[in-house]
Amino acid sequence: MPPTQGVPPRPAPPPVRPLTSRVSDGRTAPLPAAAPGAVPDSDQRRRERAAARRREAAEAKRSRAAQRARRPTAADRAAAQHRSALLVMVLTLGLLIAAVVVTGGMVAASLRTRPVTLASPLHIYPVKMTTPGQCPAGTPGITGQVGAGPTCYWLNRGIAIHKVADLRVQRVKGAPGYDVAVTLRPVDRRAFATLTRMTVGHDLAFVVRDRLVTLPRVDTAVLDGKVAVTGSPDRAAAERLVRELKGR
């Protein structure tokens, strides 16, 4: 049947080409198809933000827990107070001990005496025997004055002391009167101990400048160098004996 006059024929549609993408070799290759179950970009970003918020919340929770763990409890505060009190007590005790030591050292220093240098040597002789009257010339003895008159004290070999550690007057403990306390130096103690061992029960003549100063009796051996000359009725007599022993 002849075409209808006045209606132009409809052009044929172009052929459908597959969607392609260019590659480096000039040929075309089909684009990869979308993976099944793919999530749109907006949903993915929301999920990522939500995960980041959960991580931040978890981190903040752990930080708060760590702060609570570091916060001292009542027991911790009590223990710290106890340690502080103990430390203060130890420091106070140490200061008290140091004060006692210093005070004791000062007292000991005040009580410590200086060596006494004698103006003339003190000669100490064992008395061998006594005879009335003056000692004959050339006799190894010394004449002393007693109530009945002069007496000759025959002497054995003795020792000479030039310096003593201490020489002082002291009261007699438990009895009236005064003593003269003589403390020998270590260099003279051994010789004096030997001398007193041999003369227990006998007299010793203390001679200064060829003059008999005192005549004490040895009651026991003196091993520590501490000699007490007794018999002074008052302090003035004891002080006079100290001066005579010093050679003044």
Automatic annotation (TrEMBL):
Residues 1-17 have a biased composition (Pro residues). The keyword Transcription does not apply. Residues 29-41 have a biased composition (Low complexity). The chain crosses the membrane at residues 86-111. The lineage of its organism: Bacteria, Bacillati, Actinomycetota, Actinomycetes, Streptosporangiales. Gene3D superfamilies: 3.30.1360.200. Residues 42-62 have a biased composition (Basic and acidic residues). Residues 163-245 form the SecDF P1 head subdomain domain. InterPro entries: SecDF_P1_head (IPR054384). Keywords: Membrane, Transmembrane, Transmembrane helix. This is SecDF P1 head subdomain domain-containing protein. Residues 1-77 are annotated as: Disordered. The keyword Protein biosynthesis does not apply.
